[in-house]
Amino acid sequence: MGVTTTIKPLITAALKDVYGQDFAEKDLTINTTKPEFEGDYTLVLFSFVKQLRQSPEQIGQAIGQHLATTHPALFQGFNVIKGFLNLVIADAYWLGYLDTSYQDKNPGHQPSNGRKVIVEYSSPNTNKPLHLGHLRNNFLGWSVAEILKQTGHEVFKTAILNDRGIHICKSMAGWKYLSDGATPESTGIKPDHFVGDYYVKAENTIKAQAAELLKALLAGDTSGIEAEADKAEAARLTGIYHQLQGEEGKEKEADKTLDQLKELARKHSPFMKITQQMLIDWENGDPEVRALWFKMNNWVYEGFAETYKVIGSDFDKNYFESETYLLGKEFVEDGLKKGVFYRKPDGSVWIDLTADGLDEKLVLRKDGTSVYITQDIGLADKKYEDFHYDQSLYVIADEQIYHMKVLQLILQKLEKPYADGVLHLSYGMVELPDGRMKTREGNVVDADDIIAELKNVAKAKTEELGKVQDFNPGELNELYDTLALGALKFFLLRVDPKKRMIFNPEESIDFHGFTGPFIQYTHARIRSILRKEEPAAGPRMEETLLPKEKELIVLLEQYSHTLDQARQEQSPSLIANYVFLVAKTYNSFIADHRVLKAESESKKQLRLRISELTGHTIAGAMGLLGIRVPERM
RNA sequence: GGCCCGGUAGCUCAGCUGAAUAGAGCAACUGCCUUCUAAGCAGUAGGUCAUUGGUUUGAAUCCAAUCCGGGUCACCA
């Protein structure tokens, strides 16, 4: 483990030896020493002052002296400035670390800890193609899964395909009535996009019909609505609306009423009715509707498969909502028996979570059909049956924080053994400068589009630089893929997953600075050096380190700590930030020091080893982000 | 309205389990390619860490209030 883990017990021991007092390791504040001071790691002394009744300077001197005399091989020196004890770790320690790790092609790998984790991610709806938000989800889920694997967990990746419901029927109705039998083959359109187009067409039809109906309703004509109850409701709302309209200061209420009317008009638009009927037919197993559903979902899967292949998403098991949406019902009985749920007079079943600071939630409709949360209970149980997980991660956007809280509470109250292992890995939505992406409104950044666009950027930049003229077309294509996906994945993973992010399509994703290609480039430079000469085996000859050499090794030694941190916080962004720092530090290092033409053979060997370790670390860290690193670019 | 999340340089973000003069990248400006790939390196400039109060030897970080932005509280998924 890292050097700070080694140092901490030595410091507590020193405090005990010198002052006879006990301190816990967690009470020690150890930071990396700021570059303007001499030293590698710094112990902050202020917190000891009260208990030890000495000035920080005195404490620093005493502890520093004690450490230097008892562990001269580890501590090369120390200095005390104000309340800080700066410790200089011996070059021998860093060189020793380099010796033992430079050949390790998979740095930071931890042995199995026997913990089983499933990561559910991606989980798309099968009525439209993937967009930028899905990409953030996919990259995050995949990366977190890999980080868990690297830190010794047994990991299974799953997805739940939301393949049924009213939105799916919209695409189906759209195609059935508005396509004239066109197919992905006949049009040459990627099949998931093809289906998505009919979703949009259906939406637009509904919108147009609803607008017309709304106009009629406002004019007092309710003949467009069949159901008597809704007819009356429409008349009532129209009356209220007209009344509110005339009143000063009631604009907000009027708008609200208008929204209710709009919703009613939507519901009763002819195309919406067709769609609703289709959902009923689907649930009743109508063969024709089922066949249509099957055909169109398969088009979508075909399209998804292509995109998943490009972005590198993979799954150990897919769950289909069409197969799981009835699952949770059995637990409703169980919950009623346990007194966790209660039944209202109309027959609907609820849970009261007000004591937990939440609300009353419906778990079963009065007609006996299940709601979203019921299905999730069922799926959680099914997954446990399938995997016997210690932990079940759900990569879902933060708009569902509340819902996931409810799910876990219910599972706990039902006394499910796996309840505490259910964790929501929530992430912020990707937004455009003018707000959220809405497929319905067509303002989305399509996943396939943005990848294609970045590939073009990669191609243009590469051609402009003219460094790979000897690449054959296949190699070039692979390089463009590597760079485009590298830029995109790094862009989405480098920020804290919890935070929502704004993506401005006007400003294309950069290839310079804090970006994937910058790090890929650094790797290519390292490989370029190592292709010319590899480090020789055998004992090390060099005993001292120049500042830039040491800085780099110190940083490389922190990799496993960073990895641990990233696992704990379930945040690939920590790795992205770290690997960028490594690349930057290496670039600075080779700008100052020659490797192949070093001042001596021993220096050359040292720097070859440093280069090798840096290359492995970069490749490993980028691998955890799902980003490939090229040999040349 | 209740609950949850956020507000740090012109822009995008680190730092948030308290510690030295608040850091990167982009954009702007200066230098550096007969030398291992300039997709690079070195440097300049840019900050009332939303506001106010509190805790502390020490606050961007913890607490409270306020302002601003977002999410959520459906017999939707």
Describe this structure in words.
By secondary structure, this protein is of the alpha/beta class. Among the domains are: 3-89, Arginyl tRNA synthetase N-terminal domain (Gyrase A, domain 2); 165-312, no CATH class. It has 23 helices and 15 strands. It has helices spanning 3-19, 46-52, 56-70, 91-101, 132-150, 166-178, 184-187, 191-218, 228-246, 251-267, 270-283, 287-311, 321-324, 329-338, 372-387, 401-413, 447-465, 473-493, 516-532, 547-557, 559-569, 572-592, 601-624; strands at 30-32, 41-44, 75-81, 84-89, 116-120, 154-161, 317-320, 341-343, 349-352, 360-364, 391-397, 422-427, 430-432, 435-436, 501-502. The strands form four sheets. It has a five-stranded parallel β-sheet with strand order 7-6-5-11-12, with helices on both faces. A four-stranded antiparallel β-sheet has the order 1-2-4-3. A hairpin with a 2-residue loop joins strand 13 and strand 14 (435-436). Helix 17 (447-465) crosses helix 18 (473-493) and helix 21 packs antiparallel against helix 22. The two termini are 34 Å apart. The protein binds one RNA strand of 77 nucleotides through helix 2, strand 10, helix 16, helix 17 and strand 15.
